[in-house]
Description:
Layout: H1 23-41, E1 45-50, H2 56-64, E2 68-71, E3 73-74, H3 77-90, E4 99-100, E5 118-124, H4 132-145, E6 146-156, H5 167-179, H6 188-197, E7 200-208, E8 212-219
Parallel strand pairs: 1-2, 1-5, 3-4, 5-6
Antiparallel strand pairs: 6-8, 7-8
The chain binds S-adenosylmethionine.
S-adenosylmethionine binds at residues 4-6, 22, 24-25, 50-54, 57, 74-76, 79, 101-104, 124-126, 129-130, 134.
Amino acid sequence: MPQFVVDFGSLGKTPEEGRLDAPAFHRNHEAIWGAIAEFMAGARGDVLEVGSGTGQHAADFARRTPQLTWWPSDILPSHLASIEGWRLKAGLANLRAPQGIDLTDAAWTWRGDAGSRLTAIICINTLHISPWSTSQNLIAGAGRLLRPDGRLFIYGPFRRDGAHTAPSNAAFDAALRAENPQWGVRDAGDLSALAQAAGLTLVNIAPMPANNVVLAFARAERQN
Ligand SMILES: C[S@@+](CC[C@H](N)C(=O)[O-])C[C@H]1O[C@@H](n2cnc3c(N)ncnc32)[C@H](O)[C@@H]1O
C-alpha cells in the first residue's frame, strides 16, 4: 500500500532547485482561477492553501492578487521544499513561506499574523488522496479559522447524491481505493453535511473540465 500522500518527486522528473512540476497544474489552474477570481478580486487579507503540493497554484494565484497574502502549506518535506522553490522564483511580496499543516490532525491551525482570521482557504485535489479525516478536519478548521465573510474552496472530483458524475470518475475512485482503502472520491453531500455542523453552507458548485468541480462554502449566515 502506498503512503497516504502523492509525491511528485516520484513521477520521474528531476527537481530543479527543489521545484517540482505537476502536469495537473498546467491543465487546471486557469479553470480553477475562473471559479475563485470574483471572490478573490474583491477580497483583502490572508488566504491559506492546504495540500499545496508543488506550490505552483499558490505562486500563480498570489501573482494575480497582490492585495491578498497567500500562505501555502503541505505535509511532505519534498513538497515544502518545492513550494519554497517556486516562492523564491516568483519573488512576490504577498507569498509567504510554506508551513507544515497536516489535516489528519483535528487541532490543525495556521501560523499567520497574531489573531487574524482567514479570508479564504483553498484545497486542490487533496481530499481524495487522503483519509476521510482530512475532509472532516479541513471543514471543521474552516469553521474555526475563517472570517465571517470568508470562503472555503475545494477543487476535485466529487460524487453527487451518492453517484459518480462520470464513468471516468468511477474508474478513478476504484483505482484510488485499490491503491489505498482510505482514499476515494468524496461525496459533495457528505461535505455539505460536515459544513453544516461547522456553521458553513455549500453556496456554489462550479463545473470544471474533466468532470471536476469547485465547491464553495461560506458561513451559514453569509451566503452572498
Ligand atoms: C494530489 S496532490 C495535489 C497538490 C496540489 N494541490 C495540486 O493540485 O497540484 C495532494 C497533496 O495533498 C498533500 N496531502 C496529503 N495528505 C495530506 C494531509 N493529511 N494534510 C495536508 N496535506 C496533505 C500531499 O502531500 C500533496 O501535496
